[in-house]
Design goal:
mainly alpha; 13 helices; extended
Amino acid sequence: MTSPKSASSPKFASSDFAPSRDIARLIEIMAALRTPETGCPWDLEQNFASVVPYTLEEAYEVADAIERADLGDLCEELGDLLLQVVFHARMAQEQGAFEFGDVVQAITEKLIRRHPHVFADEQGETAEAVKGLWDRIKRDEKAAKAVRSGKAETPAEAGALAGVPAVMPALTRALKLQAKASKVGFDWNDPRAVLAKIREEADEIEAALEAKDSTEAGAEVGDLLFAVVNLARHVGADPESVLRGTNRKFERRFASIERALAARGKTPKESSLAEMDALWDAAKAAEKNA
């Protein structure tokens, strides 16, 4: 009988890896891809660090499908994101650290532990009460983790701003840092005060430009962005979400400019800024009328 791994046949029998709704099949396929000599050369070359960009990309593609309200695409993108979890778990298993089952157990334990108002006798009848309960449990978990590790927390780890991953998108991280600072009273009470801060930061950019100091101007732009995120938070808007909306609006209006120019037998490069500005205003007016 010919071995499925012989040189004259596929390394694995396709019937052994038929599609399935069972998570165990996905784990088996990932193990096959990572099997030395018979697996996929690309998958075998990967490590935790090299896979991270793909993990982040898949998370963004899930968000994009949700933003577009495309549930068919969402199903596929969630599968791609699940693959990232299985991939990381497989690499950890190869190192004897943990495996996929441990990941599932850890999250189920955490969900039960953090929902005592559902799985135990704690009271949590409103979303606000549940949030307070969740925060308290997270603090307890953090303290217990420090005890288990035997390491004293550094001032940064114990501070009010601790726990915000440095690799987060900058706008989202700014939002979370500001929200944590707000919990200890470091915040404005009026969004108009934040607006005044934005004007102040714009003035500082102008001063840097007048001084022809591009490095300082860049730093002040960062301060301005941070202040704009703060204003978004104060008016109840998620900065990542509203900026995505503005990006789509820009794309839509610029495409309108390109269509209008094409009707005149021109391209943007062959047009003046004044002409494109006029077409932009026309596209904007058309959207408002619609």
